[in-house]
């Protein structure tokens, strides 16, 4: 019916138009992450169907790493891929859906999620901006780069 078609159109229009990579580019403070995703060859994955939840380190988070770390990682694709996939989990978890506990990253290592006060932390990284919804998941930006053990 016309009503069903209109409802379907509204649902599609309400969905975010940009995927994880496009949303990260538009955010403006995730450019080091975007460059790292390109260097690791992960852009196609994060433009894929998903859904993914990405805990995205801000440019400031990357700048907190020791001098030369980012440049070194950009030259070590295997290590870079391991670190970047450690920041993502399968599925779409909006902030209101995140529960304290351990969750397995796409890399395979475990992330420890805690909910101190009104905050969300992943390992020791604090979510600084939550719920950047994308067409294939969600991005939560964090203040620290997570390193798999």
Summarize the entry for a quick read.
By secondary structure, this protein is an alpha+beta fold.
The stretches of 5 or more residues where confidence is low (pLDDT under 50) are 2-12
Mean pLDDT figure: 91
Largest sheet: 7 strands, mixed
β content, as a range? Answer: 15-25%
- Helix content percent band: 25-40%
The DSSP helix count reads: 7
Characterize the overall form.
globular
Secondary structure tally: strands: 7
Structural class: alpha+beta
Distance between the termini: 55 Å
Throw out a few tags for this protein:
149 residues, 7-stranded mixed sheet, globular, disordered N terminus
What does this structure look like?
- There is one protein chain.
- The protein has 149 residues and is an alpha+beta fold.
- It has helices spanning 2-14, 20-27, 31-40, 43-46, 59-63, 69-75, 77-85, and strands at 52-57, 88-90, 101-104, 110-114, 121-122, 125-134, 137-142.
- Strands 2-1-7-6-5-4-3 form a 7-stranded mixed β-sheet.
- β5 and β6 form a beta hairpin.
- α3 (31-40) crosses α7.
- The protein is globular, with a radius of gyration of 16 Å.
- The chain starts with a helix and ends in a 7-residue tail after the last strand.
- 30% of the residues are buried.
- The model is unreliable at 2-12 (pLDDT under 50).
């Amino acid at each position: 019916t016309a009503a069903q078609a209109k409802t379907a159109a509204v649902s599609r229009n309400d969905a975010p138009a940009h995927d994880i990579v496009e949303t990260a580019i538009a955010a403006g403070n995730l450019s080091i992450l975007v460059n790292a995703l390109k260097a690791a060859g992960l852009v196609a994955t994060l433009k894929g169907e998903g859904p993914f939840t990405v805990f995205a380190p801000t440019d400031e988070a990357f700048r907190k790493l020791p001098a030369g770390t980012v440049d070194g990682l950009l030259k070590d694709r295997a290590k870079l891929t391991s670190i970047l996939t450690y920041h993502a989990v399968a599925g779409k978890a909006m902030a209101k859906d995140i529960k304290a506990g351990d969750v397995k990253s796409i890399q395979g290592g475990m992330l420890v999620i805690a909910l101190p006060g009104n905050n969300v932390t992943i390992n020791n990284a604090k979510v600084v901006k939550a719920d950047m919804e994308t067409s294939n998941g969600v991005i939560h930006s964090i203040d620290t780069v997570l390193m798999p053990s």
